[in-house]
Amino acid sequence: MIPYFIREGFANFGRAKFAAFASTSAITVALVLIGIFAVVGYEAQVVSNMLRQQAGEMEVFIERRATQAEQEALHARIQTLPGVAETAYISHEEAAEIFRREFGEEASLFEDPTFLPASVRIEVAPSHANPDSMSQMASAIGKWRSVDEVVFNRDLLVRVAQNRRLISAIGAALGGIVVLASIFLVGNTIRLTIYARRLLIRTMKLVGATDRFVRRPFLVEGGLQGTLGGVLAAGTVWGGYRLFLQQMDKAPAPFYLEMTLVGGLVATGILLGWLGSYFAARRFIQNIELH
Question: 20 to 30 Å CA-CA from 96: which of 22, 41, 55, 197?
Answer without folding.
Answer: 55
